[in-house]
Automatic annotation (TrEMBL), chains A, B:
Alphabetized GO MF terms: ATP binding; proline-tRNA ligase activity
UniProt keywords, alphabetically: Aminoacyl-tRNA synthetase, ATP-binding, Ligase, Nucleotide-binding, Protein biosynthesis
One biological process term in Gene Ontology: prolyl-tRNA aminoacylation
Catalyzed reactions per annotation: tRNA(Pro) + L-proline + ATP = L-prolyl-tRNA(Pro) + AMP + diphosphate
EC number: 6.1.1.15
GO cellular component assignments: cytosol
Enzyme's top EC category: ligase
Aminoacyl-transfer RNA synthetases class-II family profile domain span: 38-317
The keyword Ribonucleoprotein is annotated on this UniProt entry: no
Protein name per the record: Proline--tRNA ligase
InterPro entries per UniProt: aa-tRNA-synt_IIb, aa-tRNA-synth_II, aa-tRNA-synth_II/BPL/LPL, Anticodon-bd, Anticodon-bd_dom_sf, Pro-tRNA-ligase_IIa, Pro-tRNA_synthetase, ProRS_anticodon_short
């Protein structure tokens, strides 16, 4: 994409009421726009990043046998009354609204109730199980405070998968598989090394549930980390479980973290309340055994900004960067400009995602924007680069917990193509 | 996809409170689930169709220079007060809700106000224009009645593009281009021959706006069609404009129709109210000239069902069918079953979208389901089909306004592959 075509502009300052680092940088870079506290719109660059995160999650959910659906935001009061969660004393984060006939409707903050009710039409026998519907869907939560940018939204995209199994054994096998899939997802997104499995309170059907917490100074959660196992206990249950649940280590260290995912054994709580039953192998009516599994793609994007940004701007992990290459033309002559144009066309032709800064602007402005936007690889064509060559420089690269920045070097167009196409 | 894997079941009867043909068939086929009147969830088959429609629209919007964004549903009262549209006497279809601090928020029924406000951060000079952001986003409209299935929803997906131009001339050129793009889109979706450009009331900045109306008995609109030009006048303005605006023909025929798209010249109504200005070529502050352009992908899907379904079920146009082929195994022996499996694998390998009915069910049930689901091509492997061959039969095919149904015939696997891959 040509930068002269992109409608968004970078800006020097974030809105004064914005306190979180991720929102400040994402707004300055033109990735998102703040509509109100905790409510953001995605602009072209931001939507590209969000779609990359979504794409990675989708692949992993499909690989597990997930089937994508899209449930409504508007919710029928009746369904939620069956589990007691319509009541605002039980759930204090509802946004509610009113139909023309005066009936109340809610905006989904999660989807256990409607999906359980919906599955009644599709599950009747043990042969229909297990099943794993999932969706990417906007949730609404009436948060009292929303000052963490994409990390805590009043309206935010969520991937939620629900598992419907015959029994606890079948459920548990899937629960372990999704645990692994979540590790894979966070590794692919670039958050793997900072993200730890965290034990949280269970419920009637399991001792624990699990969160995936990314260690991050901007986190609103506190977790208690076992340095040996790299697993943690959340603050909710630390008073009861003061040691590492895996190795028994009692030296846990407190860390700030962001909950980027959670997995939960629901058991038959929802299927009992909403009458989701199946006939088992001997014809006996049995409640379906359920689980739920969430990831916030926008939140993961916000955390990536918090973790990897430097004083100059955002540094995207390769897998979720809006573009693979930021091609910058500093041409003062038509000849050099043509050379940059030709390289852009070549990259486009090879399906390489390239943002091409073809604007009529100063070199300093272009470099500052490139640093702010944070595309992993910068490629410059200028009066100084020899014909057929380009000067490349990596944006800070995250290697383990160290960061290295390649110094600039000159390579041929062919080498650049090879480098970014991975061929 | 194997049908044994698909979690949805077809059903003999639609919910008794469902009156529209499209909702009845889509629910029976397992494409959608009714949450409440005018509020539907998309199940895997339905989401596949919806995504096909979205994909076609996206391609055409990108070809016009559109840039995809995703704006929030939750709306800030303040922005809407500037245009007077917060007031429920001006807009009676708001869903409103309340933040924890008592402030009111709305759920977007459209996005002119927030996108105009947002663009203030990105437009300042004539060099920044024209620009065409668009989105696929869920709209909320508090309809009094919602009995037409996907044709009139309280919550529904919409593609809305907004044009920001320097002046009326530049706007008008784009307006004509999008008119053509809409014809292309409806043709590609399979609604082209039934969809007519319809003149509607304009506003302060243009004599007319335009609707794209699909002739359909289930339509809630009445249009006045000129048979010569195949353009129409909507009932809103027919009293003032009794003749065809193109050829002057006064013999217009009344037809029921569904509004599947609309395009509108907004002029400077929103940019004036929300202070979206740019400096023109001579440095003068000028209001941006705007237009808005909507299509409801779910509504288009509902109309396709209304138009093409027969007494046996849905008949999808090829371009938006959930799968290209419905492969049905009627094998009674392991040998034939293996043959069907092998053909399925072969189709999958060629990236052909195939729904494979591998279920343990009677032939009659499988055929009835195939007719209900409406995939354009049915391919049967049975004890009767010779080795390496398959029996194919087209679901009713829409040719012009006539429908033809190929009778079944036997072809080789290679021929089938060639037929569906289009190679």
């Amino acid at each position: 994409m040509k930068q002269s075509f992109l409608f968004t502009k970078t800006r020097r300052d974030a809105p004064t009421d914005e306190v979180s680092r991720n929102a400040k940088l994402l707004i300055r870079g033109g990735f998102i726009h703040k509509e109100m506290a905790g409510v953001y719109s995605y602009l072209p660059l931001g939507l590209r990043v969000l779609n990359k995160v979504v794409g990675i999650i989708r692949e992993e959910m499909n690989a597990l046998g997930g089937q994508e659906v899209y449930l409504s935001a508007l919710q029928d009061r009746e369904v939620w009354e069956k589990t007691g969660r319509w009541d605002e004393r039980a759930v204090d984060s509802w946004f509610k609204t009113e139909l023309k006939n005066g009936a109340e409707a809610g905006l989904a903050f999660t989807h256990e109730e409607p999906i359980t009710a919906m599955m009644r039409g599709h599950i009747s026998s043990y042969k229909d199980l297990p099943k794993y519907p999932y969706q990417f869907q906007v949730k609404f939560r009436n948060e009292t405070r929303a000052r963490s940018g994409l990390i805590r939204g009043r309206e935010f995209l969520m991937k939620d998968l629900y598992s419907f199994s015959r029994n606890e054994t079948e459920h548990q096998a899937f629960y372990e598989k999704i645990k692994q899939a979540y590790h894979t997802i966070f590794a692919r997104i670039g958050l793997g090394e900072k993200t730890v499995l965290t034990f949280a309170s269970g419920g009637s059907f399991s001792k624990y549930s699990h969160e995936f917490q990314t260690l991050c100074a901007a986190g609103e959660d506190t977790i208690h980390l076992c340095d040996k196992c790299r697993i943690a206990v959340n603050s909710e249950i630390i008073s009861e479980h003061t040691a590492c649940p895996q190795c028994g280590n009692e030296k846990l260290t407190q860390e700030k973290a962001v909950e980027v995912g959670n997995i939960f054994t629901l058991g038959t709580k929802f299927s009992d309340a909403l009458n989701l039953k199946y006939r088992n192998e001997v014809g006996k009516e049995t409640s379906v055994f359920m689980g739920s599994y969430g990831i916030g793609p926008g939140r993961a994007m916000g955390v990536a900004v918090e973790l990897f940004a430097d004083e100059k701007g955002i540094v995207w992990p390769k897998s979720i960067a809006p573009f693979a290459v930021h091609l910058i033309s500093l041409a003062s002559s038509t000849k050099v400009k043509k050379e940059a144009d030709a390289l852009y066309e070549k990259l486009q032709k090879e399906d390489i995602e390239v943002l091409y800064d073809d604007r009529d602007a100063r070199a300093g402005e272009k470099f500052a924007d490139a640093d702010l936007i944070g595309i992993p690889l910068r490629a410059v064509v200028s009066d100084k680069t020899p014909v057929g060559k380009v000067e490349i420089k990596a944006r800070l690269t995250v290697v383990g917990q160290e960061r290295t920045s390649d110094s600039a070097r000159i390579i041929s167009h062919a080498e650049l193509l090879k480098m970014v196409s991975g061929k």
